[in-house]
Amino acid sequence: MKRSKLVFIGIVMVLILTQACTQNKPNATNDLDRKVDSVLSLMTLEEKIGQMTLFTSDMDQTGAFIRKEYEEDIKSGRAGAIFNAYGVAYTRKLQEMAVNNTRLGIPLIFGYDVIHGHRTIFPVPLAEAASWDLTAIEEAARIAAIEASAEGLHWTFAPMCDISRDPRWGRIVEGAGEDVYLASEIARARVRGFQGEGIGSLNSVVACVKHYAAYGAPQAGRDYHSVDMSERTLRETFLPPYKAALDEGALTVMTSFNDLNGIPATASKYLMTEILRDEWGFEGFVVTDYTSIMELMFHGVAGDTLEASRLSIEAGVDMDMQAGFYQKALPQLVRNGKVSEELINTAVRRILKVKFMLGLFEDPFRFCSEEREKTLVMSADNLEAARDMARKSAVLLKNENNLLPLSKDLKTIAVIGPMADAQRDMIGSWSAAGDWTKSITLLTGIREAVSQSRIIHAMGCTTDGTDMKGFKEAVDAARQADVVVLALGENYWMSGEAASRADIGLPGVQQELADEILKTGKPIVVVLFTGRPLTINKLQQHAQSILLGWFPGTMGGSALADILFGDFNPSGRLPVTFPAHVGQVPNHYDMRNTGRPFDANNKYTSKYLDVPNEPLYEFGFGLGYTTFEWSELSVNQTSMSEQDSVKVSIQVTNSGLMTGTETVQLYIHDPVASVARPVKQLKKFMQLTLEPGQTGVAEFYINSLDLSFFRADMSFGTEKGNYMIMVGPSSNTIRSAKIELI
Ligand code: BGC
Q1: pLDDT tens-digit series, residues 444-503
Q2: Which residues contact 101 (CB under 8 A, 6 or more apart)?
Q3: Is the CB of 166 within 6 Å of ligand 1?
Q4: How many angstroms separate the alpha carbon of residue 266 from the centre of ligand 1?
Q5: Catalytic positions
Q6: Is 337 exposed, middle or buried (0-12, 13-18, 19+ CB in 10 A)?
Q7: Pairing mode, if any, of strands 483-489 and 454-458?
Q8: Does the C-beta of 289 come closer than 6 Å to ligand 1?
Q9: How many angstroms separate the alpha carbon of residue 286 from the centre of ligand 1?
Q10: Angstrom distance (rounded) from CA 148 to CA 156
Q11: From the CB of residue 80, how many other CB atoms can be counted at a distance below 10 Å?
Q12: C-beta of residue 560 within 8 angstroms of C-beta of residue 390
């Protein structure tokens, strides 16, 4: 019989069984399970394992291509998913390979790292977190999902939910910073954005919560390094954002590369089954991060392909990304009775279920519409949203004598520095299918904003080189100008995967360049581009203004010019502490007090001999172009029971001259408990946008869940007694009140 005939019969059988099951069963979940089982019952062991195998597509000068061996795998049902392939024509071609050639015609799922935008690139995730604007963050993920799904994609490897408190780690750029609550809320917002109206809708993509777990805490900030942490820290700080994303409905999880207390995550039954499935009730599928099944051999917990595969499947890992180990080892392991076929069935069920939910069994090509691809990608609205997000993400760190905003009537502006016209760097790392040649640099943004002014541009030096020959030209430019905009920072590749740095100062000779420009005595605005906190003490001391632009995305230059010239009042707040010295790391705001808290007059208290304890900029910090006045804090009752809640409110008045957004942050501290509690922990926040003279009220309700924590015996709950409620514009500037839990 001809192959195509067999395929046809296969599909018809699946559909008949599918329909029969659908008609008989009352509830949707059962229907889905039965559909999945009907397909599973037709599959050979090799076909099942194929569904558990994910391979990459590649790219060269001629464009996208699939390796010959993977093409064979797709055609024979030995690969069920492909990543790094996008575009309607290309994904259709690969999908045809699968459905037209395999016995059962099971469609492929296409995954990709759509991290901060697909074609329209938004600010890097850490920057977006600085907006504290959950609606805007959700919208950014929504647009990313619309563009990605319009290009044939079904699945994004995001959100990255790794808390990180170590700016040496390059991947701090991909997360939402150091705070448990902020990162959890952002994780939820991103899942809502990606999965939109629900999986199955044409403009949604399946979210993948990564990198589970605790990847953001590698020893000494070195990427892929071991993680050693207490159960308390894991549960209090590192697990909540993953859990929040799953509670919001994320359907897949990616394992992390690291070992946790000696057990690599990919081989950890504790993480992948006991916590993820048994405690949290996760029902989607787990994919490895890249070749991490193979890496079990380098970790030293598996001697060969068979052992690595067995450990992973037993831990609860459903899909093997790129190692090809499952494909090689599982058939043999099952046949030799080392791995039960039921384990395989469970994994395949989870994967098929997602494919059903995506609607791929009804129409494998439903995400392949040229029309959608043409109209939805990089639309004017999407670009405007990216510009707005970049404005909201920028953080004003210093503004002496209100140098900013600059007048649009300045005659001459010198735009100096290696990041001034750095088009590639604007979109940062993990910029997916973003086309950097379309990004707007700071120089272009400034030119567009003040077309009447004379703009002199000089690079001065490269970002990380040692050559100072360009200094003279830069100093000459500065001398001619009314104001200098000095664009400094890191290249895009200095943040991201495999981009750890032991020295987190300005790279190369940029500080020396700044020193020379400062000597001219001209007013200087530093615009800082980075994916991590940098130690910039000298700039903080000497430059009049510092605007943190991060890696702001496709529209970054325009957005930053909007801020520089006062068309937008900056409102970003740091989602991560900027240490004053790398030796302070980790230096996060929610530390415990210690038994010897800092006392300037007592040597034997917790401090350094050579640097202060204080960070350069604290968590939650950020300035703007207006001023706010805060009332005292009011609580509607000073005690509450477990079932009760307390209303906390504070009035904020815009006492300046420009409309502005203030972020009201609420922190809690439990001064006496069975375990030492952090000096403060963010529990709520809200943003108030106020016109000059306008007063807004921030109201929060505190309930027992907000007061709960892992007690001495690791049970989760409250303890009776006093709690401090602290409210303010950053983690440092606080008004407080006491409440008692009775
Ligand atoms: C990264 C993941 C990413 C994967 C696929 C890995 O190197 O750690 O975050 O999703 O590659 O591109």
Answers
A1: 999 999 999 999 999 999 999 999 999 999 999 999 999 999 999 999 999 999 999 999
A2: 3, 7, 74, 75, 76
A3: no
A4: 14
A5: 289
A6: exposed
A7: unpaired
A8: yes
A9: 14
A10: 8
A11: 27
A12: yes
8 A C-beta contact, residue 419 and residue 425 = yes
> Residues near 578 by Cβ (< 8 Å), separated by ≥ 6?
167, 533, 534, 535, 536, 615, 616, 617
Output the CA 376–ligand 1 centroid distance in Å.
Answer: 26
Does any ligand 1 atom lie closer than 6 A to the CB of residue 223? no
CA of 560 to the centre of ligand 1 (A): 30
C-beta of 157 in contact with ligand 1 (< 6 A):
yes
Question: In terms of Cα–Cα distance, which of 492, 360, 385 is closest to 147?
Answer: 385
**Do residues 521 and 485 lie in contact, with contact meaning Cβ atoms separated by under 8 Å?**
no
270 CB-contact burial (10 Å; exposed 0-12 / middle 13-18 / buried 19+): middle
pLDDT of residue 414: 98
CATH number assigned to the domain with residue range 390-584, chosen from the 4 options 3.90.550.10, 3.30.200.20, 3.30.2010.10, 3.40.50.1700: 3.40.50.1700
Looking up tokens 């240490």 gives 579
Residue type, 172: I
User: Looking at ligand 1, which residue's alpha carbon is closest to its atom 11?
Assistant: 290
Contact 728, 683 (CB under 8 A): no
Helix (H, G, I), strand (E, B) or coil at 554: coil
Q: Which CATH architecture has domain 54-372?
A: Alpha-Beta Barrel (3.20)
For the stretch 538-562, pLDDT in tens is 999 999 999 999 999 999 999 999 9
Of the CATH numbers 1.10.760.10, 3.50.50.60, 2.60.40.10, 3.90.420.10, which one belongs to the domain with range 628-741?
2.60.40.10
Residue 449, token pair as written in the block: 């904003």
pLDDT at 49 over 50: yes
Could you tell me the pTM of the whole model?
Answer: 0.96
Residue 731 corresponds to which tokens in the numbers above?
């983690």
- Tell the burial category of 62 from Cβ atoms under 10 Å away from its Cβ (0-12, 13-18, 19+): exposed
Could you please report the per-residue DSSP string of 628-656?
EEE---EES-SEE-TT-EEEEEEEEEE-S
Give 60's contacts (C-beta < 8 A, 6+ positions apart): none
Q: How far is CA 589 from CA 175, 179, 218, 384, 504, in A?
A: 17, 9, 19, 34, 19
Report pLDDT digits (tens) over 293-339.
999 999 999 999 999 999 999 999 999 999 999 999 999 999 999 99
Atom of ligand 1 nearest to the CA of 84: 12
Q: Is the CB of 425 under 6 A from ligand 1?
A: no
Residues 6+ away with beta carbon under 8 Å from 211 = 160, 162, 254, 255, 256, 257, 258, 265, 289
Best CA proximity match to 159, nearest among 231, 228, 253, 62: 253
Alpha carbon nearest to ligand 1 atom 12, residue: 113
Q: How far is the CA of 500 from the centre of ligand 1 (A)?
A: 16
For the record, the structure tokens of 378 come out as: 């990089």
Ligand 1 pocket, residue 210 CB under 6 Å: yes
171 lines ligand 1 (CB under 6 A): no
Give the domain ranges of the chain.
1-42, 54-372, 390-584, 628-741
Residues 6+ apart with CB under 8 A from 58: 64, 65, 66, 67, 84
